[in-house]
Amino acid sequence: MKKFNITVNGSAYEVEVEEVGGAVSAAPKAAPKAAPVAAAPKAAAPAAAPVAAAPVAAGAKTISAPMPGKVMSVNCKAGDAVKSGDVLMILEAMKMQNEIMAPEDGTVSEVRITAGQNVATGDVMIIM
Fold first, then answer.
1. What gap in Å lies between CA 33 and CA 63, rounded to an integer?
2. Burial class of residue 47, CB neighbours in 10 A (0-12, 13-18, 19+)
3. What domain range includes position 25?
4. pLDDT band at residue 18, thresholds of 50, 70 and 90?
5. 31 and 78 share one domain
6. Going by C-beta distance under 8 Å and a sequence separation of 6 or more, which residues neighbour residue 70?
7. Could you read off the pLDDT of 24-41 as tens digits, one per residue?
8. Where residue 125 falls among pLDDT bands split at 50, 70, 90?
């Protein structure tokens, strides 16, 4: 058994933890303050390895998803000239539609998303 001090919401607790497969102690001691013990979550099945995205050319500007959500519309295509502040796409997150705008003037070289697609935080959506 190992003893640990744990603080939960400002309350300190002293707990004893037994290692799985470890030897059982002959006389377990009761902790002076025992915190409720939650069941250990079951391990999730390993996810499939993510597909590596194509590399981005040096000097290219990437527009990544600022939050997870669903792409509602894409307002540009490869080869389009855009100005700073132009709305490139609409991303719906938490039932709110967010305008994703061009950070600077430039030309769209690649659009990696389509309307209806779900994206995660940090996914590269557009390359300028």
1. 51
2. exposed
3. 1-37
4. confident
5. no
6. 91, 92, 93, 116, 117, 118, 119
7. 555 555 555 555 555 555
8. very high
